[in-house]
Amino acid sequence: MRIGFIGLGSQGGPMAQRIIDAGEEVTLWARRPATLEPFAASGAKVAGSPAEVGAASDIVCLCVVADDDVLEVAAGPDGVLEGLSEGGIIVVHSTVHPDTCRELAKRAARTGVRVVDAPVSGGGRGAESGTLLVMVGGADDDVAQCMPVLSTYGDPVVHLGDLGAGQTTKLLNNLLFTANMATVVDTLSLGASLGVEPLRLADVIAKGTARSFALESIAASGGTIERIAAHAGNLLRKDVGLVGDIAGPERTSGNATFTAAQATLDKIEVMSS
């Protein structure tokens, strides 16, 4: 297959490299020429626009930042849809609102193009090692056609349902992670008040039934969320907000996970003010 890739950041770059290393014909595009420099000797082609990526590809993967970026790159002027032929597929790896993927699918359907949503978890290291968790939504046939590409950087690759199901799952994952951070910080603080050194407490809990990725991340940051807040605070705020929008107040009001996630965001807000 001919594969296009747009969004060559710390996670998207290694994902594209995995596809190249698998021997696929790959075409790249980036707003900043410097982003393309690591691929100079890779054998990948470089396009002058997203539309050119579409014209050179059967499947185009998007790993850009936000909802507006997805719609602009895929369906905007000189976007992927202006070049991608009937039967092509756009794979949205960005973490966005499920409705963004559905809106893109409506526009794509006018030219016979399909859309699959496939947000990922695992970061740059997971992409480099081919162990990203890939959460997929889309029609069975479309997902099956994309599976050889997704499997170059994903293990496991999980098909969760119709278009949008991957995004919903990723957002719920990020909601729970955000909630876990609040409970971890408060538990370590309670332990300190009871005479247990926080990092030693974290080390012990990490070997017990209450272990979590949030605990490991906070322990690695010295027992606080300051570093995580600086690095990912805006993304967590975005994702929790998207869950709130999808679920609505009737589902989030009184929900323990959502309440704890909001407590984490409150802590982050205090740090940034």
Automatic annotation (TrEMBL):
Pfam families, per the entry: NAD_binding_11, NAD_binding_2
Keywords for the protein's UniProt record, in alphabetical order: NAD, Oxidoreductase
GO molecular function ontology, one term from the record: oxidoreductase activity
Domain 6-phosphogluconate dehydrogenase NADP-binding: 2-161
Entry similarity comment: Belongs to the HIBADH-related family.
Record bears the keyword Lipoprotein: no
Leading EC class: oxidoreductase
Keyword NAD listed: yes
Protein name per UniProt: NAD(P)-dependent oxidoreductase
EC number(s) reported in the record: 1.1.-.-
3-hydroxyisobutyrate dehydrogenase-like NAD-binding domain location: 164-247
